[in-house]
Amino acid sequence: MNADNLIQQSKDNKEEFWKEQAQAISWYTFPKTITSPDENNYNQWFADGELNMCYLSIDKHIEDGFGDQIAIIYDSPVTNQKKTYTFSEAKEEISKLAGGLQSLGLKQGDTAIIYMPMIPQTMFAMLACARIGVIHNVVFGGFAPQELVVRIDDCKPKVLITATAGVEIAKRIPYLPLVEKAIELAQDKVDNIIVYNRNLVENKNEYFEGTIDYQDLISKSQAADCVSVKSTHPLYLLYTSGTTGKPKGIVRDTGGYATALKFSMKYIYGIDPGETFWAASDFGWAVGHSYSVYAPLINRNATVIFEGKPVMTPDAGTFWRVIQDYKVSIMFTAPTAIRAIKKEDPNGELVKKYDLSSLKKQFLAGERCDVATLDWFDQHIGVPAIDHWWQTESGSPMLGLMTGFDDYKIKRASAGKPIPGYDIRIFDENGYELDAHHEGYLAIKLPLPPGALLGVWKDFDRFQNSYLSQFEGYYFSGDGAIVDEDGYVFITGRVDDVINVAGHRLSTSEMEEVVSSHPDVAECAVVGIDDDLKGQIPFASVVIKNGSEISDEQVEKEVIQKVREKIGAVASLKNVMVVKRLPKTRSGKTLRKLIRTILDGKEFQIPSTIDDETIIDELIEKIKIYKK
Ligand code: COA
Ligand code: AMP
Fold it and tell me: Which family is annotated (predicted)?
């Protein structure tokens, strides 16, 4: 068997292929139905199968005699802590927390928000929910209260699980004031707040009033068993940025997802059970869900939870130290992390201090990887760096290489070839399929394979409008791409209002909503501009209201602060420029792409639809002054 045979099999008989992959995981009831339509006629996988994700991740391995194997490695340079948990130790805490959730009245189908930092308890909370069929929604700790509010009001959680603090390098971030603010602003009231006390910050006593102490709950609770859930039961919701201001609650199923993850560990990542896998991502992102928690655990790999940054915690050698200390065999990070390391350690001096012999491959995703970063990696680390492409929506890679076989070939700057189940096409804007070497919109023929989204939480219309209506019979990814003559795909970037800042997916329209809410702002345009470290960063061009007496500097400062308060520091909006007018089409549409191209200092063409060409010179002049 080689990769080509496997890919061919997946095309020849899709149902048979995925049925066989589903046999690699344990089911309480193995599905008889492999594909079937849901109530909206959208495809679902293994509908009559039953299983439990926490069982697959933890209990199964204990039953198989691996209870004493290390499952979780927690390494926190920011708090000077290191701790490991075996599968049996993890089960002890997870099952008691699950019992505690049940004692609070939570049951299958309820939702829970988890707003926590990179600590094992976050993972325990996710797995405890999965154990009893509660649908979790992890919210990235770098988001501001307003982001929490949107999620509370959309998924109406019965419980919110949080911690007293996160740590950003040397800065301690108290979570409870943020949670309190969110609870105050949300329309829906959350019945239970569970707080894990890290004893890192002083919190006012009133923040704890009416909350439940995590440790206390565990010590009082009976262990709960895994419940059997339908394959289509939502394991989690993960909100992601779309083209409109409000994030979309991506719904992930259980059976299709578990099947896809197990498949990916064997064939895409090529890792055997028992080895150590490290995805250096926050739990709040899709990578964190799939490759810090569920995939490694299902595959019986030890997974590393790293509470730190690639640099400054304490230095740019920290990733290499972790690889050495835990014998990491496969690592996954965003190119921005490697760029940050390269900037601090251009000659790879820190790399030489560590033994990286355990490392077999480095996977990269989240944003386009530039060749200079790959060069640095090749020169100093010397293991294959493999780019692959996926989205929150897919839950696992859609483009990549089948490194489980030895015959894979890397093509630089390409994110690889379609993964089995993903029938990828490139269309022009009228829906005509393009040949090799023509840039167009990346779409995927329906049905999507197991693991991909089931929909948008309680909003089929939004699901349809966001993904299914652009090209009939296809899922539209929002990315542009080119395919070459060998079938390798080159992602050219988002074609919508989504930007990738340091591997974090953010919506410029959401930022525009916040900027426009400033009382002195008449209108604005937020675009993503190139950045050497973060790949892209947002840039806001702002027009001040006529008659407003505020200074440009003051508006710039206040807009930056507003975005930090409403979206979070992670938005990284540091550039705000006041302009007299924005370039627009005759029908009044802001020419954002033109603004972006000018800001990036690239050559641009004046669109024929422009209303007033003189605005371009105004803008160029203003940028010259701004950049000084
Ligand atoms: N809680 C609170 N604040 C957070 C946060 C969190 N979990 N995560 C980030 N922030 C804050 C940071 O403190 C920073 O605030 P500041 O503007 O006050 O300094 C801001 O959000 C931006 O953070 P970040 O994007 O992480 O930038 P950085 O300059 O601190 O670090 C990198 C740059 C490249 C080192 C860092 O972005 C990185 O490690 N990126 C890898 C991303 C990744 O793994 N993505 C996952 C997809 S695979
Ligand atoms: P997220 O949903 O946060 O994982 O972000 C998904 C988006 O990140 C995709 O739509 C792409 O725009 C971008 N992305 C992810 N992986 C890659 C990659 N390997 N190359 C280029 N862009 C990528």
Answer: Belongs to the ATP-dependent AMP-binding enzyme family.
